Amino acid sequence: MGMNLDDADVVARHIWNGIARERRDIYPRGPERLLLFLQRLFPRIIDGNLSKLARDPAVKQAAS
Known about the structure:
By secondary structure, the protein is an all-alpha fold. The protein has helices at residues 8-20, 31-41, 43-55, 57-63.
């Protein structure tokens, strides 16, 4: 689906820093944060669109 994955070390460091600061919630950085916000406001719309993308043959072909 054309997603860029963050480096595992960067993600682990972000989580570790949140734990060290006793944060209850740790959120992703960058554009993923916007998607998380929209997911909370409009869960059915976001889930439906992501499902359509996952089933779209054009998306699967572009990813390979």
